[in-house]
Amino acid sequence: MVPLYMAFLIGGLLCLLGQLIMDLTKASITPGHILVGYISGGAILSGLGLYEPLVKIGGAGATIPLSGFGHLLTQGSLKAVEQKGLLGAFSGGVEATAAGITAAVVFGYLAAVLFNPKG
Fold this sequence. Notes:
Distance between the termini: 45 Å
Number of domains: 1
Helix content: over 70%
Mean pLDDT: 92
Radius of gyration: 16 Å
Shape: globular
Structural class: mainly alpha
């Protein structure tokens, strides 16, 4: 079991890195760029076997941020390729992240229905 302070530290460092990238680079770097960069970076690091040690150290601090989503996509695809072959490369990531994707869609819809935009 990962100590709570390690999850907080790793998650905080990942968030700090994203904030520093936005603050210290050109104004054209948006939160959308950070989102794509974190998911892609997590997927690449996971494919190279470098993200799993971070998960073991940081627990939820490494799996909950966007980089953890990229890690989960990659791990699902790799596992499905072993079972289903090439078709698994396309379906495995979606199967592994189905619960998170469903939650995002449902809660996004509820927020859109319940709240009025200001602008």
